[in-house]
Amino acid sequence: MEKYVYLFNEGNSDMRNILGGKGANLAEMTNIGLPVPFGFTISTQACNDYYKAGKKISDTVEQQILVALEQLEEKTGKKLGDVTNPLLVSVRSGSVFSMPGMMDTVLNLGMNDETVKAVARLTNNERFAYDSYRRFIQMFSNVVLGIDLFYFEQFLEETREKKGYKVDPELTAEDWQEVIAGYKAIVKRQKKIEFPQNPQEQLFLAIRAVFDSWNNQRAIVYRRIHKIPDSLGTAVNVQSMVFGNMGNDSGTGVAFTRNPSTGEHQLYGEYLMNAQGEDVVAGIRTPEAIHVLEKEMPDVYKKLLATCQLLEKHYQDMQDIEFTIERGELFILQTRNGKRTAQAAVQIGVDMVREGIIDKETAILRVDPEQLNQLLHRRIDQTAKRVPLTKGLPASPGAATGAVVFDADEAEQLGKEGKKVILVRPETTPDDIHGIVAAEAVVTSRGGMTSHAAVVARGMGKACICGCESLKIDLKNKLFTVGDTVVKYGDIITIDGSTGEIMLGGVAMIEPQLSEEFKLLLSWADQVREIGVRANADNPVDARKAFEFGAGGIGLCRTEHMFMDPKRIPIVQSMILAENYEDRTVFLDQLLIMQQGDFEGIFEAMEGHPVTIRLLDPPMHEFLPDKEELLVEVTKLQLTAPDSPELAEKERLLKKVNQLSEFNPMLGHRGCRLGIIYPEIYEMQVRAIINAAVKVTEKGIPVKPEIMIPLVGHVNELKRMRQLVEETAEQVMSATGVYFDYLVGTMIEVPRAALTADRIAEQADFFSFGTNDLTQTTFGFSRDDAEGKFLQTYIEQKVLPENPFAILDREGVGKLIEMGVTLGRKTKSNLKTGICGEHGGEKSSIEFCYLAGLDYVSCSPYRVPLARLAAAQATIQHRGSIVEAVR
Ligand code: PEP
Ligand code: MG
């Protein structure tokens, strides 16, 4: 019979898939002898079977739960529902990947009208017993019975007011009994049932509710963002309760073995005395910093510190630990690898290598390449005048400026419209997740650094400030006040997530400096990786940035971007409007000088590394004014100034625009098709490149130009363009007497090029896969507007697993790339291959490129560090399996 239920001493940390992360860790901790309250885990398979059976717990699973319960009862000497020594348990979710706060939990299960009396007797604390019971009713009613918490909160508030109390600790045992009666009445009113008194019934209802919470809205959204498969299911952990709310010698908290924000090697965390588990993470009361515990309970602190060190050594990673102190005794409830900012991930990885805990490759694998973005983000210029309006807890670093909004839906709406917003909330709850995704940053007036949404924001690399208590939020009137200052919906503020400061208006920002550890980690990545990283850059400034970020060359210089400069566009237009070759060359000569200057700057910035320059690619109409607008102007002039020279000029322009307009511009007269019809344009560009290379060579700086022809589909196109390049280059070189090597290659961005790559390689020294166009031409999806029109729905409805313009479609586009590489190398074994579409900066696509045997990836300068790390990770994970792995 399949095993579905495991006692904590029957599992270990390798059983994550079966027991979920939390269950596997509880088992592991039990086995290494830590003080973990005993319990059992119901497997993820049981959850999946539950869904398969139409939300039914099978008899087998039920039976195994009952057996495990008996064993738990034996071990603890307590019994569920017993009126002398009752067992109380927590029922918690725990999936394979941690999803903080996304699923449900029930605490204090086993309480009823009778057991509460036993708890009061045993603890000699009536007040505690009734408070625990009312907490249970509240939580169970919300999570299991689906009653809004609002009813309970409102009732509690009314009771407090009626009795003239300000805070909960003022309520006596009798008061809590009154509250319990009120709560039961709410259940009866809302659900037409009595609150369940049978603890076994409570247990099975709670288990079902946790299974159900796998598919609640926020869990689904979280899984989508973090790419966690829906098919994994959640495990359920049933664990005997310990109480942090038994008085002032009890408490509960969260500790990180290192600072999850900065990576600093020092115990970090928060706790609350006389409180229960969820009070800390829910972010409702603002907790104490962990070092205060050292003064308050020195022995417990010492033990906690030792346990943290033991756990970190055992797991060889920074741990995020939940603990409870019950009457001076420490219990560990949970440990997991701690979520951390990019800065902390890098710092901890490098420190742990230095401390001999892990090796360099492990450190490389530990940092998520996407997370590096955080380090490359801007922060507030230190020299700028900053006048903080107020200050909260620095929950996630980075700085942001945006308009204040008070609601997650609003943040999402405005975010969609491209507006930069800062989400300001009294407290952050997991339900706000879509707003956090859309906002630039998040600010809360309550809650600690480990509140759920703060953790989520940190994981996403969003700046976040928590617990800013001086901020008085008025949700109804959409404003907040700090003292006398009123900040309204839509007002601009700036926040610094690294210091917790909030400022009015915008503040000057600067680009980030990379830490020594960051550079060190990337230098380790460079030693490991077996695939090059270049950058896409079109001007000397970007080229320098790319070089600084560690690019080993330029993989794509889009020369049309040089044409787009506002000062140059009139010359480009005149060149296009020229009626004949002679007229055109006048303007081409002017452009030549401008382009040459840019090329010189780029060659110099790259200090002898290869620079791939692509000749003009986009259809010509892109450089001319918009047809509709022009039509309006011409019509107006025809009415107001029919004989003006201005009208004649505009009419000429309109005629040309009409001539050049295309039904399907992306399939139109662009790429090498331009070079074939207007060879003088390509010739000018080649002349500019070679002239620049001559100039730079003369300065003593080596150059490696690689001239790239776009949109080739037939070998003859490349043959002609290659001839043009070679003849032009030869002219310049023989005229100047300066000779150097250069390459001529092509982009592979239409399927025919990949299919006939053996023929095309006859004329090419290198291939660069332009996967933006190759995705467009392979799918037949427009790269300009498919996303807005239907692609989003395709992805939501899972017609496609991902957006193929963001993550390379290995099955289709990938097959063409493999074919292109294989066929090309058959003709020319030393053919250089690379990728320069957007995919070159995306980690899964980089992994594919490594597996397909490409020589390099090329991406935007800011993604270069990410690509270096992702390239190293792909190498470590797949070394030795290239080619076989693709087949
Ligand atoms: C491509 O098509 O992938 C490419 C890099 O060229 P562009 O995006 O300029 O068309
Ligand atoms: Mg292209």
From TrEMBL:
Pfam families (UniProt xref): PEP-utilizers (PF00391), PEP-utilizers_C (PF02896), PPDK_N (PF01326)
Binding positions (substrate): 558, 614, 749, 770-773
Cofactor dependency: Mg(2+)
Lineage: superkingdom: Bacteria
Family affiliation: Belongs to the PEP-utilizing enzyme family.
PANTHER family per record: PHOSPHOENOLPYRUVATE DIKINASE-RELATED, PYRUVATE, PHOSPHATE DIKINASE 1, CHLOROPLASTIC
Name of the protein in question: Pyruvate, phosphate dikinase
Lineage: Bacteria, Bacillati, Bacillota, Bacilli, Bacillales
